[in-house]
Specification:
Length: about 270
């Protein structure tokens, strides 16, 4: 009887050890579930960088508008999930105190899949060009970004972790590129498909000169000023030295260029190209 008990305990211990087995980040398989653990070296929203002695990976904890996980740099976490390209989609996140956060089910759709993100374009940005009393000809309506597009990409970028912006540019085919700085001080660049809100590209690197951009609120003020000057569609908003340059089109489809002082947003130049 004692011998049988010992065998049973050995089997249980083996199973438990297998369940707790961890994978080094650099050895993560391309498919299937795995468990990794390490130090959080950067966090923005529900997305964070987890690092062990073999490397690091970006862990996706689901959208913050659905549920905020409050992950902070300096935490040590144990994450079970699966690799999705260059990211690791978390299923569960275990903190050092044993608290376990369930992010998504092992099978089936994520719990937020059927819900709309809570963008607040009605309260946080100027309205679409039609709200200004101007009527765009069809050709102008097809160009660049509207104020509502800029507001939405700002919401997505802030959720991603951006705190300051250097450039927002329309790339064509409904894609907008954003460059700036994250809340952990890193420089970042993302491309967003505005039809779906999906990230098409993301790049991060250590900032060498510190942050030197403008906030989302300032970008929104710049858009408002540009609308007042007659611009109804936007191609690019860029911080260049001590000036903010805005390129776009007026309601007649003419190219416009506006320059603002980045300190007080005084209009320095308005230029039309026929």
């Amino acid at each position: 009887m004692l011998r049988n008990s010992a065998i049973i305990l050995s089997i249980v211990a083996f199973i438990a050890g297998t369940a707790l087995a961890e994978t080094r980040i650099q050895d993560l398989p391309g498919r299937g579930d795995a468990t990794i653990s390490g130090l959080v070296t950067g966090a923005w929203g529900n997305t964070f960088v987890l690092e062990d002695d073999s490397g690091n990976i970006i862990v996706e904890g689901g959208p913050a508008w659905y549920r905020e996980l409050d992950i902070e740099a300096g935490e040590r976490l144990r994450v079970t999930g699966r690799r999705e390209g260059e990211r690791f989609a978390a299923i569960t996140i275990e903190r050092e105190d044993g608290d376990i956060l369930r992010v998504r089910p092992e099978d089936g759709p994520a719990p937020w899949a059927a819900r709309e993100p809570r963008h607040r374009a009605d309260t946080r940005s100027p309205g679409p060009a039609s709200d200004t009393g101007l009527t765009d000809p069809p050709a102008a309506q097809q160009r660049g970004m509207g104020p509502d597009d800029i507001n939405r990409v700002l919401d997505i970028a802030v959720e991603y972790g951006f705190v300051e912006f250097d450039e927002i540019e329309y790339e064509g085919d409904n894609v907008i590129e954003v460059e700036g700085w994250l809340d952990n001080g890193w420089e970042a660049e993302i491309e967003v498909d505005m039809a779906t809100g999906r990230l098409l590209k993301e790049k991060r690197e250590r900032s060498r000169g510190g942050r030197a951009g403008i906030t989302a609120d300032v970008v929104r003020q710049v858009v408002t000023i540009a609308l007042e000057q007659g611009m109804v569609r936007f191609d690019e908003i860029e911080l260049d030295s001590r000036k903010i340059e805005v390129d776009g089109w007026d309601r007649y489809g003419r190219e416009m260029e506006i320059e603002l002082d980045d300190r007080d947003l005084t209009v320095l130049k308005v230029k039309f190209d026929d």
